[in-house]
Specification:
The chain is mainly α and 110 residues long. 98% of the residues lie in helices and 0% in strands.
Length: 110
Protein backbone atom coordinates (compact mmCIF):
# COMPACT_ATOMS: atom_id res chain seq x y z
CA UNK A 1 0.00 0.00 0.00
CA UNK A 2 2.82 2.33 0.73
CA UNK A 3 4.30 1.71 -2.75
CA UNK A 4 0.95 2.51 -4.41
CA UNK A 5 0.69 5.81 -2.54
CA UNK A 6 4.23 6.75 -3.56
CA UNK A 7 3.50 5.88 -7.21
CA UNK A 8 0.29 7.95 -7.18
CA UNK A 9 2.15 10.82 -5.60
CA UNK A 10 4.91 10.54 -8.23
CA UNK A 11 2.33 10.48 -11.02
CA UNK A 12 0.61 13.50 -9.54
CA UNK A 13 3.95 15.32 -9.26
CA UNK A 14 4.86 14.31 -12.85
CA UNK A 15 1.49 15.55 -14.05
CA UNK A 16 2.00 18.82 -12.18
CA UNK A 17 5.52 19.21 -13.69
CA UNK A 18 4.18 18.49 -17.19
CA UNK A 19 1.44 21.06 -16.66
CA UNK A 20 3.97 23.64 -15.39
CA UNK A 21 6.31 22.84 -18.30
CA UNK A 22 3.42 23.39 -20.75
CA UNK A 23 2.48 26.67 -19.06
CA UNK A 24 6.10 27.89 -19.13
CA UNK A 25 6.40 26.91 -22.81
CA UNK A 26 3.12 28.70 -23.54
CA UNK A 27 4.31 31.85 -21.73
CA UNK A 28 7.65 31.74 -23.57
CA UNK A 29 5.83 31.35 -26.90
CA UNK A 30 3.62 34.34 -26.02
CA UNK A 31 6.69 36.42 -25.14
CA UNK A 32 8.46 35.43 -28.36
CA UNK A 33 5.35 36.24 -30.41
CA UNK A 34 5.02 39.58 -28.62
CA UNK A 35 8.68 40.38 -29.25
CA UNK A 36 8.31 39.43 -32.92
CA UNK A 37 5.28 41.68 -33.21
CA UNK A 38 7.12 44.55 -31.53
CA UNK A 39 10.13 44.06 -33.81
CA UNK A 40 7.94 43.95 -36.91
CA UNK A 41 6.09 47.09 -35.83
CA UNK A 42 9.38 48.85 -35.14
CA UNK A 43 10.76 47.70 -38.48
CA UNK A 44 7.66 49.05 -40.22
CA UNK A 45 7.93 52.35 -38.35
CA UNK A 46 11.60 52.65 -39.28
CA UNK A 47 10.78 51.84 -42.90
CA UNK A 48 8.10 54.57 -42.88
CA UNK A 49 10.53 57.03 -41.29
CA UNK A 50 13.18 56.18 -43.88
CA UNK A 51 10.69 56.66 -46.71
CA UNK A 52 9.72 60.02 -45.23
CA UNK A 53 13.38 61.03 -45.14
CA UNK A 54 13.83 59.89 -48.75
CA UNK A 55 10.76 61.88 -49.81
CA UNK A 56 12.01 64.97 -47.98
CA UNK A 57 15.47 64.56 -49.55
CA UNK A 58 13.91 64.30 -53.01
CA UNK A 59 11.83 67.43 -52.33
CA UNK A 60 14.91 69.32 -51.18
CA UNK A 61 16.90 68.15 -54.21
CA UNK A 62 14.14 69.36 -56.54
CA UNK A 63 14.02 72.70 -54.71
CA UNK A 64 17.80 73.09 -54.87
CA UNK A 65 17.85 72.20 -58.58
CA UNK A 66 15.05 74.69 -59.29
CA UNK A 67 16.83 77.43 -57.29
CA UNK A 68 20.10 76.73 -59.12
CA UNK A 69 18.35 76.93 -62.49
CA UNK A 70 16.68 80.21 -61.49
CA UNK A 71 20.03 81.58 -60.37
CA UNK A 72 21.67 80.50 -63.64
CA UNK A 73 18.88 82.22 -65.57
CA UNK A 74 19.30 85.40 -63.51
CA UNK A 75 23.06 85.42 -64.06
CA UNK A 76 22.60 84.81 -67.79
CA UNK A 77 20.04 87.65 -68.02
CA UNK A 78 22.34 89.99 -66.09
CA UNK A 79 25.22 89.05 -68.39
CA UNK A 80 23.11 89.72 -71.50
CA UNK A 81 21.86 93.04 -70.07
CA UNK A 82 25.46 94.05 -69.30
CA UNK A 83 26.59 93.17 -72.83
CA UNK A 84 23.69 95.17 -74.30
CA UNK A 85 24.57 98.14 -72.10
CA UNK A 86 28.25 97.98 -73.06
CA UNK A 87 27.36 97.78 -76.76
CA UNK A 88 25.00 100.76 -76.37
CA UNK A 89 27.67 102.76 -74.53
CA UNK A 90 30.30 101.89 -77.15
CA UNK A 91 27.89 102.86 -79.93
CA UNK A 92 27.15 106.16 -78.18
CA UNK A 93 30.87 106.91 -77.70
CA UNK A 94 31.52 106.00 -81.33
CA UNK A 95 28.78 108.36 -82.49
CA UNK A 96 30.14 111.14 -80.24
CA UNK A 97 33.69 110.51 -81.48
CA UNK A 98 32.50 110.54 -85.09
CA UNK A 99 30.61 113.79 -84.51
CA UNK A 100 33.62 115.39 -82.82
CA UNK A 101 35.90 114.29 -85.66
CA UNK A 102 33.46 115.82 -88.18
CA UNK A 103 33.47 119.11 -86.26
CA UNK A 104 37.25 119.04 -86.15
CA UNK A 105 37.42 118.37 -89.90
CA UNK A 106 34.96 121.18 -90.62
CA UNK A 107 36.86 123.53 -88.39
CA UNK A 108 40.23 122.63 -89.93
CA UNK A 109 38.95 122.62 -93.48
CA UNK A 110 36.72 125.53 -93.38
Amino acid sequence: MHQGTVNKDLERQQSYLDKMRAEVKHEIDKLVASQRLDLNLEKGRMRDDLQGIRDKTTELQITVDRDINELKSSVEKAKNDTIKSVITILGTFSAIAFTISRFIQMGAGG
